[in-house]
Amino acid sequence: MAYLVSHPDEVRVVAKRFGMGATNIDRYLELDGYKAVRKALGMQPDAIINEVKNSGLRGRGGAGFNTGKWSFGPKVSPKPKYILCNGDESEPGTCKDRLIFEHDPHAVIEGAMIAGLAVGAKSAYIYIRGEYRYLLEIMQKAIADAYAKGFAGKNIFGSGRDFDLYWHGGAGAYEVGEESALMESLEGKRGVPRIRPPFPAVVGLWGGPTVINNAETLASVPHIILGGAEWFAGLGTPKNGGTRLFCLSGHLNKPGVYELPMGYNLKKMIYDVGGGIPNGRKLKAVVPGGSSCPLLTTDEIDLAMDFDTLMKAGSMLGSGGLVVVDDSTCMVKFALRIMKFYRHESCGWCIPCRVMPQRCPRFRL
Q1: pLDDT tens digits, residue range 142-188?
Q2: Torsions phi, psi of 165, nearest 5?
Q3: Which 3 state secondary structure label does DSSP give 248?
Q4: What is the pLDDT of residues 91-134, one digit of tens each?
Q5: Residues 6+ apart with CB under 8 A from 288
Q6: Environment class of 355 (CB within 10 Å of its CB; exposed 0-12, middle 13-18, buried 19+)
C-alpha cells in the first residue's frame, strides 16, 4: 500500500501505529493506548483544554480552527453535551481519515473521551462516511472491546465517571461533511446545513452543546496529552502545531499518504516526497488541500504547508488533499469536472447552489 511507503522526512505521530495491529485492543494497550485518557482523568477540564490549545493543534478537517475552541461552549447546560467525530471524508483528493479508522480506531475513541472530559460530555458519536462500509465493522468492534474492558459505559477505568460511545454510518452525501449538516443527518433528517447562529458549541445535537472535530484531530489529542503541548507545538510552525497526514495524488511518481510536519515546504513535498512528475512532464498546477481549495501555479509552490501561509497565498490547506496536475492537462476540463461534482453533490439549500445550475449552461454539461 502506498501509505506504508515511508519517507525520511516523515514524523509519525498519528500514523505511528499503522500496520502494527492496533485495531486489537490488547495490542493498542501495548502501544501506550488509553494511557492518555487515564492521565486526563486526573486533570482539571481547563487544564486539558489549555494543553490542547497550547499545542497549536488546528482542525484537520479543513477549517483550521484551534482545537482549544472546546472552551467556547457553556460550562453548565440543562441539556446533555456531546462529542461528535466528523469522519465523513468526502472531499475529492482526501483519503487519510479512512487509514486512521482502519489501523488505529481506538485513537479516535480515546481522543473523543478526552474531549468529553474537557467539556463535560458523557457521550460521543463517531460518524463515518457512507462509502466506508468496511470501516464500520472495525469501529463497531473497537467500541465493543472498549466496553468489554470497562473503558466505556458506566464507571470508566473505575473512575466513577460514565461515557458512552456510538457509531453511525452516513448515506453517501458529500454535504454532510459540513458540521451542521452532519448533525442533521445524525438526527435522522435530511443532511442540509443549519442557519447559524446558534453555533454547535451552544446548540448542537438535539439542542445540546456539541464539540465537533475531525477524526485526525481527535486521534492527535492522546499524543498531545502524553507528550505535552510544547513537544507537539515544536513539531510544526508557530500557531500550526504538530504533524499532518498529507494525501498526495495526481501526476506523481510516489503518491500516497505521508505524515509530515506542519509547515513542510510544498515544492519539496511534490518533488522529493512525491517523487516528482512522471514521464518527464512539467508541473502545471497544484490543488493544495482538496478540490474546494483555489489552485496554485508553478511559481507559487515554494511555500510552507500550514494554514496561515496558504491563506496568505490565496488558497487553503483544507483537508490535506494535495492533487498535482501536469502540463498535459486541460485546465478547462479539469475545472468542469470539479464543477460537475459539486453540482451533483450540492444539497441545493443555499441560493448560489440552487440558482446557478439553472442559469449557467456549463453546469448542465
Answers
A1: 999 999 999 999 999 999 999 999 999 988 888 888 899 999 999 99
A2: -125, 140
A3: strand
A4: 888 999 999 999 999 999 999 999 999 999 999 999 999 888 88
A5: 266, 295, 296, 305, 310, 315, 316, 317, 318, 322
A6: exposed
Q: CB of 139 within 8 A of CB of 106? A: no
Q: Which residue has the cell 508541473?
A: 283
Q: How far apart are CA 25 and CA 312, in angstroms?
A: 43
169: cell is 454510518
3 state DSSP class of 330: coil
Q: Which cell goes with 186?
A: 445524525
Residue 92 CA to chain centroid, in angstroms? 14
**What DSSP letter does each residue of 147-159 carry, written as one string?**
HHTTSSBSSGGGS
- Residue 341 in grid coordinates: 461534482
Q: Count the helices and strands in the chain (H runs, E runs).
A: 13, 9
CB 124 within 8 A of CB 115: yes
The answer to whether 100 and 206 are in contact (CB under 8 A) is: no
The amino acid that residue 163 corresponds to is F
User: pTM of the prediction?
Assistant: 0.94
**Residues near 261 by Cβ (< 8 Å), separated by ≥ 6?**
9, 11, 235, 236, 242, 243, 244
C-alpha cell at 56: 497549536
